[in-house]
């Protein structure tokens, strides 16, 4: 666990309902010339770390394809009915776990996805709003991060990460799953895993896992007590890397 003890997390879970809340964590398959994508590894490792605290966590890997990534995600949500959905993606070049605040209705790919698709200025959802905010308590998460490498980010890019992020938030906004829609959802970028390669700037896998566990813990804490006063966000709240 990162900041909260397992006992504290179990107490928060009890305040929801008599049922155990479900959290869905997703990462992506490798793309481009890379044979490894740390987002999938972090999602799996964080899920295993959180399972021991009484949280029902499901991890899955999404295809790095514009056409199918959101479809796979939506099927997972329909099947598992999670209270929290956090999609993870790789941000090579960053050195902190970035909690994304807004997805934009734009697909602009510098390289082709794994299906050979390379959109150039097309919307994620035709007729959708220009941007949609995550419902994760992003500033609360960052302000409570302490020594963990967690920051706010104002850009999820315009590749498949942002595609999934925007599609998810649009579906939540229109109530695509009715009463079973996630109560909190968003996107988190993780740095490159320096345990695998030092070609890109990054951090060790364990630090990304701790950061993602913290994101889950603070989200559950916020859902169990949404009226708690907002923590001070003037300290330690970076703005992430715009790209």
Automatic annotation (TrEMBL):
**InterPro entries of this UniProt entry?**
Peptidase_C15 (IPR000816), Peptidase_C15-like (IPR016125), Peptidase_C15-like_sf (IPR036440), PGPEP1_Cys_AS (IPR033694)
Q: What is its EC number?
A: 3.4.19.3
Q: Which organism is it from?
A: Citricoccus muralis
| Claim: Cytoplasm is one of the keywords in the record | yes
Supply the alphabetized keyword list: Cytoplasm, Hydrolase, Protease, Thiol protease
Q: Does the keyword Cell inner membrane apply?
A: no
Q: Where is this region: Disordered?
A: 223-243
Catalytic residues (positions)? 161
Which CDD domains does its entry note? Peptidase_C15
Q: Which reaction does it catalyse?
A: Release of an N-terminal pyroglutamyl group from a polypeptide, the second amino acid generally not being Pro
Q: What class of enzyme is it?
A: hydrolase
Domain of life assignment: Bacteria
Q: Which family does it belong to?
A: Belongs to the peptidase C15 family.
- A Pfam family hit: Peptidase_C15
Name used for this protein in its record: Pyroglutamyl-peptidase I
């Amino acid at each position: 666990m990162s900041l909260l003890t397992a006992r504290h997390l179990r107490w928060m879970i009890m305040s929801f309902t008599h049922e155990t809340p479900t959290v869905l964590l997703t990462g992506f398959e490798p793309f481009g010339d890379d044979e490894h994508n740390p987002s999938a590894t972090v999602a799996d490792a964080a899920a295993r770390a959180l399972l021991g605290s009484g949280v029902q966590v499901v991890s899955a890997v999404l295809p790095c394809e514009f056409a199918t990534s959101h479809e796979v995600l939506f099927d997972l949500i329909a099947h598992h009915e999670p209270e929290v959905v956090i999609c993870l993606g790789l941000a090579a070049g960053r050195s902190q776990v970035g909690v994304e605040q807004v997805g934009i209705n734009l697909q602009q790919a510098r390289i082709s996805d794994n299906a050979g698709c390379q959109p150039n200025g097309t919307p994620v959802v035709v007729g959708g709003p220009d941007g949609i905010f995550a419902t994760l308590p992003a500033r609360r998460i960052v302000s409570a991060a302490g020594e963990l490498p967690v920051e706010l980010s104002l850009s999820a890019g315009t590749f498949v990460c942002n595609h999934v992020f925007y599609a998810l938030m649009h579906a939540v906004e229109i109530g695509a799953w009715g009463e079973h829609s996630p109560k909190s959802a968003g996107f988190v970028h993780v740095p490159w895993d320096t345990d695998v390669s030092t070609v890109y700037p990054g951090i060790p896998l364990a630090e990304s896992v701790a950061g993602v566990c913290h994101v889950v813990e603070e989200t559950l804490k916020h859902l169990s007590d949404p009226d708690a006063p907002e923590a001070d966000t003037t300290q330690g709240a970076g703005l992430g890397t715009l790209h």
